[in-house]
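hey team, just a heads up i'm posting the complex here instead of the shared drive bc the drive is being weird again. everything in one block, sequence lines first with there labels, then the predicted structure for the whole assembly after. its two chains so it's a bit long, scroll down
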Amino acid sequence: MFETPSNQLKICTLKVSKANRKRIEKIVQGVLFSSSTVTSITVIFIIIFLFKEGIGLFSSKPIEPGYFIAVNENNPAKTLSAEQIDLIFNQDITNWSKVGGKNDSILLFTFNNLSTYISEDSLGANLEFMPEKINQFIKSHTGAIAYFPDKYKPAHLQASIISMGNVKVSEFLTHKKWYPTNEPAAILGILPIILGTLWVSLGAILIALPLGLATAIYLAEVADKRLRNILKPLIELLAGIPSVVYGFFGLVVIVPIVQKTFGLAVGETALVGSIILGIMALPTIITIAEDALLTTPKSLKEASLALGASRWQTMRRVIIPYAKSGIAAAIILGIGRAVGETMAVLMVTGNASVIPHSFLQPVRTIPATIAAELGEAPAGGLHYKALFALGIILFIITFGINLVVEIMKNKSPKA
Amino acid sequence: MKVKKVSEFIAFSLFRVISFVVVAILFIILFFIIIRGISVINWEFLTSMPKEGMTAGGIFPAIVGTFYLVIGSMLFAFPIGVLSAIYINEYLKESWFKSFLRTMTNNLAGIPSIVFGLFGMALFVNKLHFGDSIIAGSLTLGLLALPVIIRTTEEALKSVDDSLRIGSYALGATKLQTIQKVVLPIAFPNILTGLILSMGRVSGETAPILFTVAAYFLPRLPTSIFDSTMALPYHLYVLATSGTNMEASRPMAYGTAFVLIAIVLMFNLLANGLRRYFSKKVKMN
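-- predicted structure starts here --
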């Protein structure tokens, strides 16, 4: 029982003198101290890096970096929002009067329709005449709006560059569209993603809560010890299955079932996400709720039984009320687990960034958005920053949940 | 009196049924993967490179990649985690600093794995210029495993009876000697259990490695720690969702899921077994 972990250590400590030993103790203590700060430093670093990469979103313009949008000098519309620009370039708005200009029809001028206005030969072999041609075109067409890379920006531009406001926090949070790679202006509204996350997570809790609580009560109060010792490790095993396996299972088993049952075109829906997340949240809820139930002092239970209450009455009137803050913690942590879960949700919810109206619709969650899109977002670009901003929001949500649980734990009665 | 008994009977039966349903869900998932996957498993599947757009061949590079990532992350997280837990549990008295460290550890444990992925990408891949590499992935996974190791080690240290420490001091041993020769040997089995459990956790994580190490298709073994690699969980994700020929790659996906589950379960069962074995041994002494 008292074997040393290694004989070398033993020899070392025997050899050293008392003064040296003191010094070694000091050094070891220093090493131990530095190790203990690693988690705190990591948390702080995570916060710093998320903000460093993400906060830049709100000081950048939603236009593709390295491009400019220009209109005729006499056009009074000089500031456009990302959404207005999107509508203009999709030709949903065709008259300047709708965006604060004169009554003049809008003429798009981009790489796509360049050749209809200007012959390719006149641009020169290396497009060296391009800036001049752009300049001329905007000057001669009062309704023109041009969108080109900065390198073709005329040196003496005789046109007005459209100024766009920076991305605003309020727009980012409340806008209903998420088109991060849209050209010429990206539309970054995360409302559908936030709502998608909430729907899927709440659905998961609705599924996991009754199952989890019933199981926790059964394990804590009803099951005899032998059965409990078999069931508990099995449920903990459920927590060990990797989320990508849950996602795969959901994709090949539950998605087709949901699709057939409800006669849907696609089976990848919020419902499947909730089912899978519900299963995944079960071990968390069961373990924490059971721990909470077990903290009820024996004296309280016995007093209730002695008064003639049945076990079920004791449970309802004594044990569950006593453990209610622990049970609440279990629910909140379960939600936290569901909100942050990535792979399983990514694989089964269909990832459509639309505002959800029913559980039988594809939805997209915050983690799934990050996982699906970060690989394609060039580092430092607008899309990249927007995804880090989503990461900040996810971090804040889960951090808040953890703090609430921590506070509840400190308040809950101790056995 | 009778009503009381009947309602109790109904409630308890309901709880029993629900508990068995929960456990049944576990078995359904496990058996589904095992039955579909086991027919795919053969020597070639385990030891050869993926071929023909990942519809044939094997998953050898993904297995090796996951192995490297588990080892790499533990080389980083295990020493730091254990040292940190020793400091918190053995050296620190109850104070604001101790509860601050605890809170931070708990918070780190609660951060979603995709946020670790974002962080790993921003710090290790971009800032430190490791690129998509085994070292970036290992460090990211290591940070993820750190709170688990700290927590299990702390539990292990707490379970060592204080009378043993006091006895050791009474014999003239210093704090360090006491930790080294009394506390750690007793806590060792439980610390080991924590290590193995976190290895299981790390081997199944996908989100943190998406942007730090995982390669979509790389039919060779990594040559250095700055090389990217395939990994089992990401390979399963790729096969399940974005293969070039989904129907043809399904068997490969089942096989990969089987291997992944087998590895994770093996770690979990090993940890459980160890815990039981050692708890018996200690009792006998």
